[in-house]
């Protein structure tokens, strides 16, 4: 008991010196897990599907990636490329360009690709590093066919785009409020009856759910659509799939069922 009291006293001293640290506690995954379980006591995780099960075929095209912080896993990119190869998918829209790896790889398959992100000026105005801002779109802008839109999804009116998309990737701000905002706006303006929607960072890793994002997704959508949400095995992604499909329950400690052979080649990249 004395040890716990000492730890509490030490924590109080730290918070007095750095009050902002309380945000780390409030935004921790464990805190969001507690909130999630209180609101959704009957949901522990999304049912699962495999990449191959969703796609007509997974194209044997090299995946381009920098292998740097904040990027997608190879399997995440492979998922997007596989979905882009479906016969009923001809257009792609994403929120959150980052270095442009996701849209760049999808654009190897689809001609109609659009990506949206804050402008570099807006990124810097948020107090973020200018070098960080400069990296946005560094790969995707190598392809002039990719349409880049600079906008803040919090205030942007998506209906002004005047169209819908077959495949949509939501990978912007991963806070609860912005996941909910982006999801609601996408489903209100950009989705048609056969659209497929993918969220990045539903999980921190293929077997560790990110509850802040998970709750943002569920809270943004009507309950009747929850049954069409799935986690794709071996990825950090959740997907809204509008068609009837069988799935399986998530098992945290299930034995691996798939192994991926990856052949890597390296070449110089110049901005």
TrEMBL record:
Gene3D superfamilies: Vaccinia Virus protein VP39 (3.40.50.150). Keywords: Methyltransferase, Transferase. This is Methyltransferase domain-containing protein. The keyword Methyltransferase applies. Transmembrane segments: none annotated. SUPFAM superfamilies: S-adenosyl-L-methionine-dependent methyltransferases. It comes from Cruoricaptor ignavus. The keyword Transferase applies. One of its GO terms (biological process) is methylation. InterPro entries: SAM-dependent_MTases_sf. One of its GO terms (molecular function) is methyltransferase activity.
């Amino acid at each position: 008991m004395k040890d716990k009291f000492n730890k509490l006293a030490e924590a109080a001293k730290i918070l007095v010196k750095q009050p902002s640290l309380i945000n780390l506690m409030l935004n921790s995954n464990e805190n969001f897990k507690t909130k999630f379980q209180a609101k959704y006591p009957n949901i522990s995780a999304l049912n699962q599907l495999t990449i191959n099960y969703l796609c007509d075929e997974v194209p044997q095209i090299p995946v381009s990636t920098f292998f740097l912080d904040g990027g997608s896993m190879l399997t995440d990119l492979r998922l997007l490329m596989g979905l882009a190869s479906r016969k009923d998918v001809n257009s792609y829209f994403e929120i959150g360009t980052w270095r442009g790896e996701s849209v760049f790889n999808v654009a190897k398959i689809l001609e109609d690709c659009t990506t949206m992100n804050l402008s570099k000026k807006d990124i810097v105005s948020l107090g973020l590093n200018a070098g960080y801002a400069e990296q946005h779109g560094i790969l995707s802008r190598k392809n002039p066919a990719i349409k880049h839109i600079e906008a803040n999804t919090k205030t942007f009116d998506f209906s002004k785009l005047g169209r819908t998309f077959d495949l949509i990737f939501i990978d912007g701000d991963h806070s609860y409020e912005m996941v909910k905002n982006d999801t609601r706006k996408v489903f209100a303006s950009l989705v048609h009856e056969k659209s497929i929607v993918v969220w990045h960072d539903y999980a921190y890793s293929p077997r560790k759910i990110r509850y802040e994002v998970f709750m943002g997704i569920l809270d943004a959508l009507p309950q009747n659509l929850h049954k069409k949400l799935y986690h794709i095995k071996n990825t950090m992604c959740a997907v809204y799939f509008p068609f009837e499909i069988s799935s399986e329950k998530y098992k945290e400690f299930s034995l691996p069922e798939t192994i991926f052979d990856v052949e890597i080649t390296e070449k110089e990249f110049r901005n």
